[in-house]
């Protein structure tokens, strides 16, 4: 599906630009985007190297295990396919915690470690497992207590109370997480039923 | 609120101290572990480049061609019927696709209407309570080399629609 969406985005965009007279804009945009991607990755190298280094210390010293034990009862309910000893749980916990405090930069490397740990036990490495889908649902719904970028933006624009959106945003993100998790369950049981027929 | 703010700033430094002191108490080779884990960070981030580049190029072409604006205009009667303010429409559209573009729109709306206006508050809450679904899926699946996103994309986008609708309703309820 992504393949088709990707092709459609590019082809439709280019064809439309010919009709709309924006071909030269599209020309610049293509190569700007490539540069943008390289810059983004350079930023990633810095953040990932630091946080995955820290994570490895926590992993080898056993701190990660200890912290995971605290959240295990809840996580095992959300991820019923994972055994309570699965190493992915520690990374999932770290990712959710970092996201919760609005630390997107630190959350991404933990999330990617979680994905590699889940992929290690994936019987079919080209197809996402049930746990991966659940994990990504949680991530796209963005369970955040503290949306740091939005607050700093409101500060720079001179909001009287830049934080006044924290509580409603938190309520909204809780709702969208619940929706995402519910949809995930519904879709999962739906596909299981279809396979059995 | 200040408490939450200071927890958020202190969280990472305290985490680093906790990790290092715990490693010291367990006599772990912290420096060795750090460099070992760091190496994986380099590999992981470089391997993301083709996935990110491919998606960013596609998104930028759509934006530069003017097609996204045209789609906004085509859909505005429908959304006006659902009583969603027209200024929020572009944001609703772009939020799941591009984080930087939607942040730019939020900045624009905040500057135009002032931070205390309903539209800029609703936009802040939409931006703060959702994530860039397409970007998250690209990066996370890219890291393990999975090219089929399957139902994750459908669920992510459906949850975005629900989440953004809820965000607008909560803004109306909370600030009235």
Automatic annotation (TrEMBL), chain A:
Top-level lineage group: Bacteria
Alphabetic keyword roster: Membrane, Transmembrane, Transmembrane helix
Claim: Transmembrane helix is one of the keywords in the record: yes
Flavoprotein found in the keyword field: no
Transmembrane segments: 6-26, 38-58, 88-112, 133-153, 165-190
Nucleoside transporter/FeoB GTPase Gate domain mapped to chain residues: 42-152
Name of this protein: Nucleoside recognition domain-containing protein
TrEMBL record, chain B:
Ranges for domain Nucleoside transporter/FeoB GTPase Gate: 46-147
Record keywords, A-Z: Membrane, Transmembrane, Transmembrane helix
Key word Ribosomal protein present: no
Sequence intervals crossing the membrane: 41-62, 74-98, 118-141, 153-175
Pfam name, any one: Gate
UniProt-recorded name of the protein: Nucleoside recognition domain-containing protein
């Amino acid at each position: 599906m992504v393949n088709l969406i990707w092709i459609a985005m590019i082809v439709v965009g280019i064809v439309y630009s010919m009709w709309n007279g924006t071909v030269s804009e599209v020309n610049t945009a293509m190569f700007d985007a490539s540069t943008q991607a390289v810059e983004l990755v350079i930023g990633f190298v810095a953040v990932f190297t630091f946080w995955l280094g820290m994570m490895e210390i926590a992993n080898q010293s056993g701190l990660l295990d200890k912290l995971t034990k605290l959240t295990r009862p809840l996580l095992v309910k959300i991820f019923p396919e994972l055994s309570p000893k699965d190493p992915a749980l520690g990374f999932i916990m770290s990712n959710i915690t970092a996201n919760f405090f609005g630390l997107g930069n630190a959350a991404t490397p933990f999330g990617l470690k979680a994905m590699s740990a889940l992929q290690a036990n994936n019987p079919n490495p080209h197809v996402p497992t049930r746990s991966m889908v659940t994990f990504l649902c949680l991530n796209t719904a963005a369970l955040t207590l503290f949306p740091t970028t939005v607050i700093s933006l409101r500060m720079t624009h001179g909001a009287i109370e830049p934080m006044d959106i924290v509580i409603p945003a938190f309520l909204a993100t809780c709702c969208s997480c619940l929706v995402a998790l519910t949809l995930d369950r519904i879709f999962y049981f739906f596909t299981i039923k279809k396979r059995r027929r | 609120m200040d408490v939450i703010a200071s927890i958020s700033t202190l969280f990472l430094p305290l985490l680093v101290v906790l990790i290092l002191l715990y490693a010291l108490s367990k006599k772990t080779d912290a420096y060795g572990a750090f460099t070992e884990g760091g190496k994986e960070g380099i590999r992981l981030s470089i391997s993301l480049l083709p996935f990110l580049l491919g998606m960013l190029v596609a998104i930028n072409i759509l934006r530069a061609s003017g097609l996204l604006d045209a789609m906004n205009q085509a859909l505005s009667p429908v959304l006006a019927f659902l009583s969603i303010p027209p200024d929020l429409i572009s944001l609703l559209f772009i939020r799941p696709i591009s984080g930087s573009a939607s942040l730019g729109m939020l900045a624009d709306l905040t500057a135009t209407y002032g931070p205390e206006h309903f539209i800029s508050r609703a936009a802040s809450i939409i931006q703060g309570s959702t994530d860039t679904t397409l970007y998250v899926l690209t990066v996370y699946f890219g890291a393990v080399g999975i090219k089929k996103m399957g139902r994750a994309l459908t669920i992510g986008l459906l949850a975005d629609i629900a989440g953004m609708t809820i965000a607008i309703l909560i803004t109306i309820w909370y600030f009235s």
